[in-house]
Amino acid sequence: MAKVELKQPIVAEIAGLFDGAKSAVVVDYRGLTVEQDTRLRRQLREAGVSYKVYKNTMIRFAAKGTAFEALEPHLEGPTALAVSKEDATAPARVLAEFAKTADKLELKGGIVEGTYYDQKGINVIATIPSREILLGRLFGSMQSPIANLARVLNQVAEKQGGEAENA
């Protein structure tokens, strides 16, 4: 079998990851221990993020003609690819959090919602909470004024009810 035929399924696998992906982050994993790598993979899996080591040329072929083509400058040396189709900030958030305890893990860059970010940009993206947390905060802030209004109306009703009894 020719080399190209062997590589096509890998390129197709990566292209499948990119298809419909909200974000992708590339990292240099050199220096991680097996235990650290296992822990990182578990955390990423729990966050719904696909994480795998690929050859840089395979990533280049799969990214050609897509927004993920912007990752090209970072495809040097050992590269692992973290892709999320659900939560756009999950790969950056989990990887950046993990990098705090594993200084060997280096975020190279990424694409979030079709926009390219370098290492500094990805670290900023990592500070954005998940969609669920943001929605919780939104609903909490919307609920607070409604709850306050209900309390005021209840107090007014109690006050008027008390005045009616005294009359």
Low-confidence stretches: none
Total count of helical runs of at least 4 residues: 6
Residues in helix, %: 55-70%
Q: Find the structural class using helix and strand composition.
A: alpha+beta
- Strand content of the residues, in percent? 15-25%
Number of strands: 5
Mean pLDDT: 86
Largest sheet, strands/sense/barrel: 5 strands, antiparallel
Report the oligomer.
Answer: single chain
Write the element-wise H/E pattern from the N-terminal end onward: HEHEHEHEEHH
Provide the gyration radius in Å.
24 Å
Q: Distance N terminus to C terminus? A: 98 Å
- What's the arrangement of strands in the largest beta sheet? 2-3-1-4-5
**What spatial form do the alpha-carbon principal axes imply?**
elongated
Account of the 3D structure:
Helix 1 (3-18) packs across helix 3. The protein is built from six helices and five strands. It is 55% helix and 16% strand. A five-stranded antiparallel sheet has the order 2-3-1-4-5. It is an alpha+beta fold and 167 residues long. It is elongated, with a radius of gyration of 24 Å. The mean pLDDT is 86.
